[in-house]
Amino acid sequence: MPEFKTPRGMRDFLPKEAAAMKYVEGITRELAMLYGFQEIITPIMESYELLTAKSGEEIRQRMYAFEDLGGRKMGLRPEFTASVARLMATSLRNKPKPIRLFCFGSLYRYDEPQLGRYREFWQSNFETIGSSRPETDVEIIALTNDLFQKVGLRNYWFKIGHVGIIRGILGMEGVKEEDQNRIMQLLDKNLWDDALAVAKALNVSEKCLATLKKVFGIKGEDSDKIIKEVKAAVKNYEKAVSAAENLEEILQLLRGSGVKFDMSIEAGFARGLEYYTGIVFEVSVPELDVSLAGGGRYDRLIELFGGEPTPAVGIAHGIDRITLSMEKQGIQPKIETGRQVMIIFIGDKLKSEALKIASILRSAGIPVELEVMGRAVARALQDADRRGIKHAIILGPKEMEKQEVILRDMTKREQHATKIQNLLKEIEAKRKT
Ligand code: AMP
User: Fold this and answer.
1) Could you report the per-residue pLDDT of 52-99, keeping only the tens digit for each?
2) Is 364 helix (H, G, I), strand (E, B) or coil?
């Protein structure tokens, strides 16, 4: 037989790693509940056409695409938003707004594997659909900040921009949307000069080139100052000015709401996905050079999928990168191992009695492991110790004659005989102390 390996770029999550992921997942679920998001579960594969309709060249090239046995072209989902947009154009079309949707699951991209970049990864995804008001954007950002606070990450910062600023300039210069997308893709990779070269090749005015160059360079932490600079730089482009005003309103609301975090506001910041129309944001930590979360406003996407014109804003949190950052920052997730009781029996005759006691305890909600290796008591106790079990119950023929078992406290290394009928009460009392 060949030696089977985990597929390149994918990982197996052994219990400790799986528990760390589930811990972060639990926090995202708690936030979904606190902010009023309802979970939906959509298929891991969708039609290739849906997935490529608006995702951007980058994602298109990295998709796991294949033909199924019925000859349909399919793809493994590289993100959740296309599935959400499909639902908004169909089953959820006429539901009252706002609609707040939460998705959790795995995504697939044929990325070049590196630290924090995998071919299978997990996201929690939050989308608020139906409102274009800035308080919606603020809530998505606040929820994301809560997530980073709750997992205990330090020194994270938000990068915030607004694609309406650059698109506003280009649009008013008559640059077609496909060409705008090309420029935004280059900006996403911080290729400012290449972006300017593309704009120049499209015959935009000298004034436009000068404005773009100025805007690309505007960034900083002082939101009032940045907004003022942007407004001055784009004053001849009405649409870019209203984008700057929208960003200003969101930032002011954020400040007013008391949500605090480090941020860098960057006027030339764009994200790879083509569908963004408004504010865009990412979260990073110093330990990783890839972002931990990313999102933004996409007011026209749902309409492009055949739905009603519907504004929306959303964010995807990269669970793998969050757990990786926690590890790098030395943050231990609070993991409940559930290991409470081990039942050890001496001699095959007590096997059914052991199973019966295990069942009684489990019915009362106590986690029980049965000794199934046929080990002698001393070895079985050593094994229980290694596994971090709190109590051992030992069934021996002599005690059983009196309807008793031995209850051993593994931490204190003390034991005593107790009546089977009192066993449950005694363990429950010990669990409370
Ligand atoms: P995106 O959908 O590209 O906006 O990504 C949103 C978030 O998903 C990123 O900030 C990452 O945390 C995570 N993510 C994206 N691609 C990968 C990947 N290849 N491996 C791990 N996490 C990823």
Assistant:
1) 987 777 788 999 999 999 999 999 999 999 999 999 999 999 999 999
2) coil
Query: Of 121, 122, 323, which is best to mutate to test ligand 1, by the most ligand atoms within 8 angstroms of its C-beta?
Result: 121
For residue 79 and ligand 1, the question of a CB distance below 6 A is answered with yes
Q: Beta-carbon neighbour count of residue 20 at 10 Å?
A: 22
Kindly give the distance from the C-alpha atom of residue 399 to the centroid of ligand 1, in angstroms, as a whole number.
Answer: 59
Counting Cα atoms < 13 Å in the Cβ hemisphere of 63 gives 27
Long-range (24+ apart) CB contacts under 8 A made by 45-48 are: 45/74, 45/75, 45/76, 45/77, 46/74, 46/75, 46/77, 46/82, 46/83, 46/86, 47/72, 47/73, 47/74, 47/75, 48/73, 48/74, 48/75
The token pair at 397 is 């023929």
Q: Is the CB of 121 under 6 A from ligand 1?
A: yes
275 residue type, one letter: Y
> Which atom of ligand 1 is nearest to 123's Cα?
8
Segment 246-263 mean pLDDT: 96
- Separation between Cα atoms, residue 407 and residue 423, nearest integer Å: 8
Distance, in Å, from the CA atom of 354 to the CA atom of 423, rounded to the nearest integer, reads 13
Work out which ligand 1 atom sits closest to the CA atom of 111. Answer: 19
Q: Give, as one character, the DSSP assignment of residue 6.
A: P
Residues 369, 372: Cα–Cα separation, whole Å: 9
Find all residues with CB under 8 Å of 125, minimum gap 6, and list them: 79, 80, 81, 84, 102, 103, 104, 314, 315, 316, 317
* Tens of pLDDT, residues 266-282: 999 988 677 899 999 99
In angstroms, rounded to a whole number, what is the distance separating the alpha carbons of residues 64 and 225?
Answer: 44
What the block records as the tokens of 124 is 């929690």
pTM for the whole thing? Answer: 0.93
User: Of 251, 207, 254, 257, nearest to 226 (Cα)?
Assistant: 251
Q: Answer yes or no: is pLDDT of 244 > 90.
A: yes
Q: Is 159 in the pocket of ligand 1 (CB under 6 A)?
A: no
The Cα 332–Cα 317 span in angstroms is 19
Q: Is the CB of 294 under 6 A from ligand 1?
A: yes
Query: Measuring from atom 13 of ligand 1, which residue has the nearest CA?
Result: 318
Identify the residue whose C-alpha is closest to ligand 1 atom 10: 293
Mean pLDDT of the chain: 95
